[in-house]
Design brief:
Number of domains: 1
Shape: globular
Mean pLDDT: 91
CATH superfamily: von Willebrand factor, type A domain
CATH topology: Rossmann fold
Radius of gyration: 19 Å
Number of helices: 8
CATH architecture: 3-Layer(aba) Sandwich
CATH class: Alpha Beta
Helix content: 25-40%
């Protein structure tokens, strides 16, 4: 087995045109990956100095407002009992998230894991992007097959697990540092990522279920859009949202300088670190009581 094969958890679907739902399909899932965050350097390169520098800068710049946000969450959520609730935080890792938006996503994750965990919820943190730019191996396979029409999704997915529901230790943990890997952020197939997150959420025992998507825009993958039309990812995400809601999962979107209500039934926009404390808690409070 190759070195790569020793650490990838592959989505073991045969290399063919694989139908996922109605008129949406993946040309192949052979090159899709689900990876624990600590294994990202084996795929993307070590980048140790860049990750360490970004982590140190994050801690130095966020210490004050992150502590305030945590304090406001304790105050605003006082009296809530979230025992029996499974909450998934799903992070958009598109290229436009680079810089301050990823800092905010990291901070949101930390505040929610701590705040919801203190109230008894099980919390999982996931991320989604693509393994390559410009379609990667999936697009090369399509080109070698003489470019059949309407091929479906033409990129290699990369789904990342930062924190599992079963993690015994409190808090977001050391794996969060890998959100700052300089080669991580690429393109985003939101519909399939949401299906993946919902499957994981449904697999853990819980009486109530919640998925919170943190994003800064619409799903985009140039290779897929050019070969299938401009609305294929948009339409698929809209259908997946309806499907996930029908499973009894509460869905909400946190937009970073972006209104997520075009896709999700509940939306909240964050424009600055000050929004992560009391304002976000006020948005979440009634949703968690339902």
């Amino acid at each position: 087995m190759s070195r790569i094969g020793t650490f990838f958890t592959r989505l073991l679907t045969p290399p063919s045109t694989v139908a996922l739902e109605d008129d949406y399909r993946a040309y192949t899932t052979e090159f899709d990956h689900v990876l624990a965050a600590q294994d990202l350097p084996q795929l993307l390169g070590p980048a140790t100095s860049e990750i360490d520098a970004a982590e140190q800068a994050f801690k130095a710049s966020s210490a004050g407002w992150l502590m305030l946000a945590n304090t406001e969450w304790v105050t605003h959520m006082q009296g809530q009992d979230l025992s029996g609730m499974a909450v998934t935080i799903l992070l958009d890792h598109s290229g436009s998230m680079r810089g301050q938006r990823m800092v905010l996503a990291r901070a949101i994750s930390a505040v929610l894991v701590d705040g919801l965990g203190r109230l008894g919820a099980q919390v999982e943190v996931l991320g989604f992007t693509t393994a390559s730019w410009k379609g990667g191996s999936s697009r090369l396979m399509w080109l070698n097959d003489k470019k059949p029409t309407n091929p479906g999704r033409l990129c290699d997915l990369l789904h990342v697990v930062y924190r599992e529901f079963s993690t015994p230790a409190p808090g977001l943990g050391r794996n969060a540092r890998y959100m700052f890997h300089p080669e991580l952020l690429k393109e985003n197939i939101d519909g399939e990522a949401l299906l993946w997150a919902a499957d994981r959420n449904q697999a853990t025992p819980a009486q109530r279920r919640f998925i919170l998507v943190v994003s800064d825009g619409a799903p985009v993958d140039d290779s897929t859009l050019q070969a299938n039309g401009p609305d294929v990812l948009h339409n698929h995400l809209k259908r997946v949202v309806q499907q996930v809601q029908a499973q009894g999962i509460t869905l909400a979107g946190i937009g970073l300088d972006h209104d997520t209500r075009a896709y999700y039934p509940h939306g909240f926009t964050i424009k600055s670190p000050e929004d992560i404390g009391g304002p976000l808690a006020n948005f979440m409070n009634p949703l968690l009581r339902d």
